[in-house]
Each structure stands twice: as structure tokens, then as C-alpha cells.
Amino acid sequence: MSSNEPTHTQPAQSPYGPLNDLEREVILNQGTERPGTGKYALSTSRGVYACRNCGAPLYTADDKFASGCGWPAFEDEVPGQIKHSLDADGQRTEISCAKCGGHLGHVFTGEGLTAKNLRHCVNSVSIVLEADDSPRLRRAIFAGGCFWGVEALLEQQPGVLAAVSGYTGGSVDYPSYRQVCSGDTGHAEAVQVFFDPAQTSYLKLCRYFLEIHDPTQDERQGPDLGPQYRSAIFPLDAEQRRTATALLALLRRKGLAVQTSLEEPGRFWNAEKYHQDYYAGNGKKPYCHAWQRRFAEEEIKALSAELAAPVEPDQDNRSQTVYDFMVQTADGSTESLSKYRGKVLLIVNTASNCGFTPQYQGLQELYQKYLERGLVVLGFPCNQFKAQEPGSNTEIQEFCRLNYGVSFPVYAKIEVNGDNAHPLYKYLKAQKTGVLGQAIKWNFSKFLVGADGKVIDRYAPTTKPASLEADIEAALAAATP
């Protein structure tokens, strides 16, 4: 629909500059771009979709899906950022930016295209994709007990554009509050923060987060007990990881027994509507979280200067060890590899239907022979090589136990190559290259890791486990005080 007079107005200072004619027609006059012509219709890039008119965060790339309709489609929104109203046709539901009123498109239900049975059909010209390293809009994810209080306090901070309660760090898709409360899904109650890096910084937000909950409590926060209430930070890039690591190290130097974990960010699932802005919606104030100073201003200034110093190429990788990574167990829980600190590790990507699968027997023999001296074998099933690991995590565990008597840890299935490669494998490959450079060549590639958490060597799939004994003996000897 269009008219001579715009139904909405453009902000005096749009972050993306003046609207062009098509943008004005769609955003201000509720028009529609032609299907298949928008730049984001088929986009799979990571980031946050912001309002073209005012810059408010509207959608995350996690919630975008291919609907085949010719326009960008999303199955969820950033809660509180989008207004739903009856369209002028009296039948459809229009969606617009809650902040500026700019027209976005329409929302449809009952189509059965996704598990949420919801499709936000959005004009590409109404949105702008901000990458994760955007200078204008970024995200942070924190977990510190009940998300009601964390959300309420973080969204009051200067520069925060939105704060959303939800679930992350688990193994179940589309988790419900009831499922997460069981403690069986691996998710944490978490808060996703959208912020303007020109007005605040990740350092300020991470510091504040560590001052509004107790980072020394393990799998609980106050009266709330269970792994879903754990204290965790989910860094979205190397800069955030470096900042969070430095803040936690500072707390430890102060003598605090910090339990806060650094975990790899999986998909963030918005919590149910009644959890969003819970305190504001119920006329209450947070009672389970309160600010307590844990950092002196001079400490933060010194830390800020340290973090701002140029980082030499690969400096982060050189300082990292395998202990810095979180992995998912076969039952869906999250585990830190720091539990193996001081052990010699043999890390292998495995498969059940591969010509090298009998190497499971050799790996088990190594494990049994050297376990008491400090060797641990870690298996990571992967289905990237001719789909030779098609089974579920439960089926893989059963296969390994029944066919090869495997008793060493075999974790949940992961990817080892490509954009979705597990961060652990990105790290391992960067430390030791192979015939194909960093890429893993095939199933049963092997990495030997010393007791200091550093990669010693890398071995091809054709290298039999028994032939590694000399190197393992040397690594164990080096680990002996």
C-alpha cells in the first residue's frame, strides 16, 4: 500500500543515511519490494538484522530460514523490538519497528515451515545486516543464574539496545523452560545483550555482569540449583574471549575461587514471552541479583590498556591450550577440557563406517596401557567424510562399546572442517598442519597433546595407533616432575 503522504517518518539522524526512493516507499509508505529482488532473500551470513530506518536490532541470523517465498524469512524476533498490528486490509498482520514505526512486512502462522510455525516475511530494504564485528551493533551472551535479574540489570546499562532472556549451551533444539529446568538439556538460562560499541564496550558489560552475580558459585546462584543456573560467558569472537579471560584471571588473582566457565556459543533460543522483561512486566524489582564492586577502577584502566595493545599474529593461539575449550558429551551436557589438565591427550576424529574404524581397537589398547601413567584418548565422531558417521550420539556410544570395548571418552558428533568446525579443531589445526594444510584429511586423524595442553604432533589417518607408542612415552616422560 502507498499514499502521497508517508505514514511514518525517518529519524533526523538515521545511522545508515537518507532513504532512497524504494526504501521510502517500503519503509514509510508500507510498500513492498518485488519478490526475489532483495539482497537478503537468500543470505546465510552471520550477524544481526537492524532496522534500516533507525538501527534498532530486530532479528538474528540464527532465526533466519529459507522459506522460498522470495523475501527474507525469520521464525522469531528480538523480543520487544517489533510491533504487530492489523494490516489496512483487515486480514494480515503487519510488522513494524517498535522504535520508529518503519514498515517491515507481515507475519504469517500455520504454514508448518518451521517448528515454531511462524514466518516473518520481511522486505530486504527495511533491514541492514550487521556482522558480528560491526562497529555499530554487537552482541554479548552471559549466564548467571535466573535470567530475570541478569536481563533487568544489564538492559539498564548505557549503550545497551536490548537484552533478551533465553537458553544456550545445550543440545536440544527449540528448548522449553520446562525442559531446561530438568537440567538434562545442557542449556543455561542466559541473556543475549545487543549493544552499541560507540556507547559502551564488551569490557564494561562483562565487568558489570561479574559484579551482579556470584561467580564463585558452582551450578547454582543463590537458592536456584542446577546446571541451568551455572555462571558462564559465551564469547562470540577472539576479542571477547580475551577480555573475559583477563577479567576472570584478575578475580582469581584476588583469591576468588571462580567457577565461571567460558563456553562456545551455540544457537541462542529466546525464552518464552512471559520471561521477557519479567520484573518490569510484573511491577517488581530484581531480588536475586544486585551489584557488588569486585574490580577497582585502576585495575580496569590497566586492563583496558593491556587489551587495547596490538596483538601479534597468532598470539592468542600461542597462549591458548586445549584446556580453554568446552565440548559436548554424548548425553548433551557441556564439559571443559580443563578436567584433563596435566594429562597427555590423544585426540582423534572418528567414524563407525570407515575403513579405518578398526583403529578403535588400537586406540583402546593405548588407553588401557598408558591410562595409569596419564594418557587419555578422546574421540570426536564426525560425519563430514562421505557420511561415514550417520548414527546418533547414543548409537555411536553403543557401537564403540559393543564392537571394540571402548572405555575412553567419546564425545558428541562435531564438524572438523569448514566454517562450522568446532573451535577445538580450529585450534588444533592451526597448531599443526598436515598434507592438506590445516584441513583434516579423513577420519582418524590424530593429535598428540602434551601435559601442558599444547599440541606436540599430528598424525595421518593411515598412522596406526601402535606406532605412536614412542611419542606417547616421550610425552609422558616430559610430564613427569
In short:
The protein is α+β, with helices and mostly antiparallel strands and 481 residues long. Helices cover 23% and strands 21% of the residues.
Provide structural commentary.
The protein is an alpha+beta fold. It has three domains: 21-130, Peptide methionine sulfoxide reductase (Metal Binding Protein, Guanine Nucleotide Exchange Factor, Chain A); 138-309, Peptide methionine sulphoxide reductase MsrA (Peptide Methionine Sulfoxide Reductase, Chain A); 325-479, Glutaredoxin, CATH 3.40.30. It has helices at 21-28, 147-154, 177-181, 202-211, 238-253, 278-281, 297-308, 315-319, 359-370, 393-404, 423-431, 469-479; strands spanning 48-51, 57-60, 64-65, 73-74, 82-86, 93-97, 103-109, 118-122, 127-130, 138-144, 160-168, 188-195, 220-221, 224-225, 231-233, 261-262, 269-270, 326-328, 334-336, 344-350, 375-381, 446-449, 455-459. The strands form six sheets. The protein has a six-stranded antiparallel beta sheet with strand order 3-4-8-7-6-5. A six-stranded mixed beta sheet has the order 16-15-10-12-11-17, covered by helices on one side. A four-stranded mixed beta sheet has the order 21-20-22-23. Helix 4 (202-211) runs parallel beside helix 5. The longest helix has 16 residues, at 238-253. Mean pLDDT is 90; it is low at 1-6 and 311-318.
